[in-house]
Fold each of these.
Amino acid sequence: MYSILKSELVDPEMMAGEEDAGRREALLENLASLFVLTHQTCSAEQLEVYDNILLNLIELVAAEARARLSAILAPLDKAPPSTIRRLAVDVIYVARPVLVQSPILDDIDLQYICQTHTDDHMLAISERVELSEAVSDTLVARGGNQVLQSLTRNTGATISDFGFRSLIESARGDESLQEAIAMRADFPGHLVAALAEIASEKVKVMVAGLGGLDEGTDPIDCAKVVVLSKMQQSASMAYYDFDSARDDVRRKLETDELTPEVMERFARDGQFAHVVYVHSHLAGISEYGAMTELTWAKPGLFIASARALGYPEATVVAVLNCGPWQTMLDDVVRAVAVVQFRRMPYRLAVSQFETQKGRFDD
């Protein structure tokens, strides 16, 4: 078969006439179908043969045929690299499938396309399952509003401190983008004041919650407030006996292993303070950090930690129904959080967990 591929039977120069257009498109689709069936076992040489032939053929077919090829090759984890890169810089309806899905495109490819192609190309890139800081920063620097909105709402995108600062600047007068920034689980605590400074009144209330502030408190002056002390002084936190819980957990640690299942039992029994200290131990974070994760306005911080630490879904569900979240979260928010937990890529969860670990202790 591979000798046939190399032969004059598929020599594009023999099919360059207009009367051969249909034959070229049929050949392209047949080769693509054959590749899908055999791609996992292709050697490097065979992959190169496919790449060379497809690369020549796509220059001789209409955009509709190229779009079909793009859709076929996009999901494959092994695909002709030069063909993928050629499709990625085509007109957007051809390029979109590979820009959104293809793992063949690396950060250098994606950054180049961001720097040289349209907002539509960048919008497609912003929808990828995972995005590195480098690519996200390039999208922030060059993308229009629709690109920024898509990137900010993509939980698989890793955004740098510089990226968040640039997003905040771009969000002046744009309440929708402000809200998207505020809702990110990895939004840096030290940028709360910067976001509050440019935020609408509606988003300022949200930002106040992110900073652990009481509604009505000036978030610009108080963004550094200590969340733990505020919560312990509040009526809702006064309900829980943290001192006794700390002692109980320490005694249990002397005789038993603390596991997510232990935390789940505490959560189902309504022992929120115990949940805080078990999570602190399992995550290797301070009691303050655990408290913050488990009382945050949105559960994204805890979801990333739970995914990174390998907590069972049953533990996550129990915690989402425990403590202040019993009243803070509604059923829709809990359901969305569980879906986020299921779908979050492990590497992304670990990255977010490491980034946020210790952040609230600064």
Note: Residues 2-103 form one domain.
Amino acid sequence: MEAYEFDPAVQDKLDKHEKKVEAVQADIIKYSIEKQQPLFDERDEIINSVEKFWPKTLMNSQGLAVFIDDEDREALNSLKAIRVDRDSKDPRSVTIHFDFNDNEYFSDKTLSKKFVPAKDAEPLGSDDYDFAETSETTKTTIHWKSDEKNLSKKNPSKINIENGNEADDEASILAPGSFFSTFFEATTEPVAHIGDRLINDLYPRALEYYTGDAIDIDDMFDDDDEFDEEFDEEDDDDDDKEIDLEEEDDQPPAKKNKK
């Protein structure tokens, strides 16, 4: 396949056209969020009466459960609601709230995490916009009741440096600690990816995750990888087969069906 380039004058017109497309897509996103939010509010009012709905829903997401250890589960058992608030003017700015019942770990009734687009983020409506890759956040302060109950202190996230320095992404390997450390009290990866999964996958599909009908984003990619591998293997098998033209010539012609 060959790649072709447009004449500069044509490319300029196409770039301007793309801006118009992005503006329309941005309007569609805003309209969709405006119409969906009351429905989410109504849904949440119903499911928040279901005992331990959100703790069970969280644990049913494999992509999130990997960041939750046994002690996190105990603390998250007091989770009574998850809420998502988007900026009406720029939905890329979003805050997720975890509402808790009284518990033995911290005194906070609500733990919130806000994400805003980085300065170099693609505009709303752009196909190239990536929430996880271009969102920024700040640390959420948790008021732990004691050092003994401070899960972030007992199990902090760590960066293991291998043959390099912390600035070298390839040399730095994050060892996730407590969910509260890795998500709420962190500002670097994988916090934005966790936020992306919570905000754009788990929250809108909470009912599916609770019932077990949901398919994790990672599972979808895994299935695609398995399909690709099987396809490649079949393709390799076909390539390995030799075609014997002489043998084909020796075969008698197929009989024609009598009319």
Note: Residues 15-145+178-227 form a domain with the Arylsulfatase, C-terminal domain fold (CATH 3.30.1120.90).
Amino acid sequence: MKLVFLSSSTGWGGLEQNLLRYAEWMQEAGATVSVLSVSQSPLHQKAQAAGLPLETIARQNRHLPWRAALHLRSRLQALSADVLWIRDPRDLPLAALAVCGIPCRLVFQQGMQIDRPKKRPWHRWRFGQIDHWVTPLKRLADEVLRNTPLKPHQISQIPLALDSHWFAPSKDKAASRKEFGIPSDVKLVGLFGRLDPLKGQDMLFAALESASDWHAFIVGSNTANEAEDWETRLRTDAEQRGISDRIHWHGQMESLQTAYAACDVYAMCSASETFGMVTLEALASGIPVIGTDAGGTPELLGHGAHGTLISPRSPDALARALKHHNDIPLPSRKDLTQFHKRAAVESWLKLLEGPPRPAS
């Protein structure tokens, strides 16, 4: 099976990281893999470092990219590609045009919510070119059916997954805290990811005013290419609230396992997260999770069976949940099986075993 993974993104967030992760996994599973990415983009550099077969593409116009689509079609034919795999909605117009009329299936692995109707004639045509729309959550599948022209037979549900090492026993808490210079005798809540108003670091800081016996571990950096310096605003906010001595900062990290091991609780404070990989990583690490009752978080937390759900943008609710942190439920290892790499790869291989779409 020959798979081509494509992204014209120049960022390095969940969309790009998971595209690279699945390219590596499918290659390990025996597929012939190629990655098409923008020269010098983070994805291009990471794919190159991983030793994946790599080609460059230009960052094309989002709408009616005719010339780029013809060029991409030629490359897909030259590679004898069976599947073109994308994650970014920005790449859908290009990909739909490129696969039209050739026996190459188009796979869209969903990573973002579709909260508004997309049923214009051009939407119908684009979505009609998709062979497999793969969503990680039932909630998202329902939303896609409601807001797009996609039909049930086009949609499959396969959760995003993690490498097996995430499910191994976590590092010693005391050793982890020593590594980050965090006192061993404090209660610690973590919040990891880019520093951004939508991620809710300010909500956590407000909660710490009431939860005065808790410290926070903030891991992340400002959103790339954004003019606003949210980190400086957050540091100022912590000082004004009188909690700066209880905030422990660390920049963006490639691997967060040691960071999770340092925590007593993880707080998912985003206003609405589609599928929080940090939530999944915390659960896999055996760390209790408090999450906002919005987006994909309720489903990831088993609607309260595998974590504590709180109202979005509610520091008081977060403070109360921290007070009762010993009552936060955890998923069993069996509950987490669906999020293992092996389960995900098996599901993907089964999905892609079918015959390619015939040329029209």
Note: The first strand starts at residue 2 and ends at 7.
